[in-house]
Every structure is written in structure tokens, then in C-alpha cells.
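WARN retry 2 of 3 for item q-0093 after timeout on previous attempt; input resubmitted unchanged.
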Amino acid sequence: MTDGLDASEEIAHLRRRLAEERAARQRAQADVERIRHESDEHRRTIELLEANIAVASRVSNLGEMFEQALRNICAYLGWPLGHIFLADAEAPSTASARLESSDIWYCAEPGGYAAFREATVRDVGVRGMPGRVLAIGQPLWIADIAQDSDFPRASAARVAGLRTACAFPIVAHAKIAAVLEFFTGQRIEPDAASMRVLDRVSTQLGLAVERQHANDRLIYEAFHDPLTALPNRVKLLDRLQLVLDHSKRRPDYRFAVLFLDLDRFKSVNDSLGHACGDALIAEAGHRLAICLRRDDLLARGAPVVAESTVARLGGDEFTIILEGIRYASDAMRVAERIQWALAEPFTLADQKVYVSASIGIALSTTGYDTAQDILRDADIAMYRAKANGRARYELFDQAMGARAKAALQLEAELHRAVTNQEFFLVYQPIVSLGDAMIRGFEALLRWRHPQRGMLSPAEFLPLAEETGLIRTIGRWVLEEAAHQTCRWQYGFPADPPLTMSVNVSASQLAEADFVDAVRGILSAGSLPAHSFKLELTESVAMIDAERTRQTLLELKAMGVHLSLDDFGTGYSSLSYLRRLPVDTLKIDRSFVTGINLNKESQCILETITMLAHALGMEVVAEGAETAEELTHLRRLKCDYVQGYYFSGPLDRLAATAVLRNQAKGKIVLTGAGLSHR
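OK item q-0093 returned
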């Protein structure tokens, strides 16, 4: 009996062990299946993420990236339909954003789900599933669309055989940039693992959007001016070359380039500060963009162009391309329209500021090969407009081009002349009417050009002033004139000492070290400051008048004598005459020539002489050429005379000979100029 019981127990024990082993094998099999499934899911997740990374690094625009992402996600989920809603990029925050259905879809069957897609396009705004995702900023899973109380497209989804949907946001720069939605015909309960994967994809795509935005911003900044948001020089030249190439393929297609420079911008910038200068540039750019809009041109009766481009080149310079014009007059009328737009006052720092523009126009009919060429000619025409009085426009012609090339050549020759010491001075005597003695000279610059011969200052000084070479040339003139004065004072001592007058320009007076430079020049030759006279015109004195006055006061404190040249032809302001520390007035030759025949000139000159003497100044009359003129000048009590009646400009050797003869008493005033006994 005992043996029977033992056998039964052993069989039961074996059965339990078999059951346990079977359960263990089933658990192990389940674990293997789970691990295999998890491994497969992990692999698929990795493949999905890698595929999106590859797309983000390969494509150049967000639309293509989203299209590929929809395809990849649908393949991962095994769902047939995906779509993207885009958020308003201009909205300051997600709360104020609106969603708009895009035309980016993935559809497993091309052309399928057409009715549902049409319903989606109509469902614009923040309603339904995408609107809820926008509101909560989290993924959303709807297992049964038909049972959802907030799904406006439910009937369209039922007809299309779609049952389950999910959606998730793409967040970039702390705002929702888009909402992606997906659909399947099966009922699928929320899947936490899939939701985690989609959340990772959401983060991944958000970073890709941020990178693309940063890249787009870099590209934008490379081609746009940061102050005005207008295209910059690079983008302008690129557009201009495209237009030029188009006009070559179609000879009847005409365009114009307008080069614009704001007049008086530097004055505004210097007086009100750079912030106001920037505000002026920004507002000017805004006005240019507005006045060239097609609707604005139509409203104001200006010619309509096929297309226009406004660009800022830098500083206060703008360029405009007018495409599809018919006549040169079209470009000219647009230039007038621009002048009107800029004529309205600008309000800067609570002040009304008025500016104008000088505009140069170059037409495509001239025949150009490169964008740089036509831009150059428009620039040349702009400078011509500025030289002709500003606040105007000029049309480029070949004569302008020839003049510009000649000026460029002259500039190169000026640089060479400084290096090769081709400049020299001549000296015109200044004669005292009291004793008919030469009391000084005016140093006058000349250029011995190796090909063109002798050139007067009028032929090269304006360009030297424009290019800044006047500072180098002017410094040499001061040094050479001072050196020659020392030699003559040493060789021909007189009481008072012989003087030397030298013209100075506005650029020289504006130099920060000008006063120190003059001090150094005088000190180097031990030249008495009062025998060195600096001449400036009224127009030069009026440029930055207060700064000029301070410079002149410093020179005056050194003992340097100051002369106001060509008096009577400029401002002739008695207020400035009282404030400027000048010692001598030089009356312009226009009042001296024919003075014996002109009562008005006599009255004017007499008044100027009396005024100067009352202010403690001496008077030099320029341009005396006849005995009759000299007689009147003496009667009007002018102190000194300078003119061809006595002598024209002399070179150094001739002037030395005249001084030598004067020292020997061999020069007398005969009424017909300087003569020898």
C-alpha cells in the first residue's frame, strides 16, 4: 500500500515539474518574443530617427523636409495618411498663432482620400485635433474618430474609412511651428511606446526647424542690409546681372539703374548723432520702397515698371533697378517721384530735418557687359548731379564716362606727381601802395606735368581736394613756402620782414594736427609767425564755422597772420567777419577790374576798405592791371596791391632777382609796372 502511495506522489510530483518546466519554457519564449519585439522596435525607431536626420541634413527647405518626415513616420506606424498644419510664423507666441493646412501630404495611395483632404483644407484655424495639440502643446491620440466630440472632419473621415488618428507638435524657438497628424483605418488604442517615439521625433524635427531657420537667417543677412532690410550690394549685383543677361536675350527689354545719394547726410549725422543718421537712412529706405510699389506708381500717375528693386549699397547710397521701362523719360519721371518722396521732412530727435537726393541714371540701351559697368556709370551720373547743384538727377552719357576716365587718370598722375616731386611754387609780389615796395609774396602752386606741360591749380586742385591728396600737397606747400621765406628774409632783411601768403583748404583746416604742423614748420626754420600769412576763402571759413574759428584762434595765438581771400564774392557776412580773427581782407579782382569806370565798384570797395580799417585789418586789392585802377585804389586808401600791373607770378630765381634789385634801389614804380633803373 505504501508503495502505491509513493508511486502516486512521484507521478504528481513529475507532473508538477513538467507543468513548471512548460510554464518556464513559455515564459522564456515570451521573453524571447518580447526582447525580439523590443529589439525590432528599437531598430525601427533608430531607423526612423536616422532617416529624419539624413533628410534634415540633405534637403535645403522645410517643405521637402516635412514631406520626407511624413513618409518616414507613416512607414514606421504602418499608417496610410499623414499631413502637416503650419503655424503663423509672424505670431509672437503660440497662444496668438493660427494653424493653416499646408499642401504637404503623404498618401500611401496617390490620389487617395481626396474628399477627406478637401475637408481638411476647409478646416482652417485652431479647431479639432490640430487645434487641441496647438493649445496643449502635447501629442494627442484618438482611438475612434467617430466617438470624438471635437473632430469636425469626422464624417469625412468615416467616408474615407479612417478610424484612428494621432497628432503631435513641432516646437522651435519655444513656439509651436507645426502640427503633424496621421490616420489609419484600423482602431488602435493609444500606444505609449509609439507616443514616446513620436515625442522624440517631435524634438528632432523641432531642432531641424531651428537649424533651418538659423541657416535661412544667415542667408538673409548675407544678402540684406541690417538697417533698412533692403537688398545689399551682393544681392543687387546678382539681380542686376540677371536683368542684364535677360536684356541681351531680348533686345527690346529695357531697364534703368538709378544711383542715389542723400544730400547733406553727413551734416545731419555729425550734428544730431549717428543714431539719428541711422534713423534717417532707415526712413529714407522705407520711403523709397513705398514710392516704387506698383500701386503707388499707378495712383500718382508715374510710369509703371515691370519690376523694381531697391537696394542700399552702404552709407547714404541707394540703388534702384527699374525693369521693363519703355523710354528714358520713364526713369526720369521715377527719379522725380523719388525726389518728391524724400522732400517731405524727416522727424529726428524731435526736429524736422530736410534732405534731398542727387540721382544718377544709366540706361541699358548704352550696351553693357557686366552689372558693375552699368552701376559704375549710374554712380558717375550721380556725382555729376551732385556737382551741378544737388537735389537733381542726371542721365549718363558717353561724355560723362570720358570725363570720369580722365579724372581717374589724373588722380593716378597726382599720386605720381607727389612721389616724383613734379610740383613747384611761383610767387606773385604784394606791393605796398605807401612806398611802392614789395612787402611780401603769395605762394602759388604749379604742376609741371611730364606730358601736358604746365598745369594751373584750377586743373587739379578740385580733384586733389576730393581724393584727400590736398593734405599731402598742402603740407608740402606750407613747408616749401616757409623754407623760401626764411631764405629771402636772411638774404634781404627788411623792417618789417618780408611776408609769405599761402592758401589753405577746408580739408587742411579740418586736420586734427594742422595747428601743430604749422607750429613745427615755423619752428624748423626759425620763421617769425607774423611773417607767415595763411589765406582762406569765405566759403572755406563757413564750412564747420565754429570748428574753423577755433583753429584760427589757435593759429592767431601763435602769431600767424590770417587773410580772408576773395572777399565780396561769397557770404560777405559782417557777423562772421567780426567773429573770425583775420588780419587782412583781400578784395576780389572782380571789384578791382575797371574800377575807374564803375561807380558801384568804387562805392563797394570804399565801404569794404573803411570797414576793414575800422576793424583793425589791412586791405589787399587783387587783380590791379592798369595805372587808372591803381590811382583809384590809392585814393580809396588800399594798403597793398597784387596784380599784373606790377608782376605776374615769378619762379624762385626771378623773384629772387626782383628782391635783389629792390635791395639795390633799382626798382621804381613808373605807372607801367615794376621797372629797373
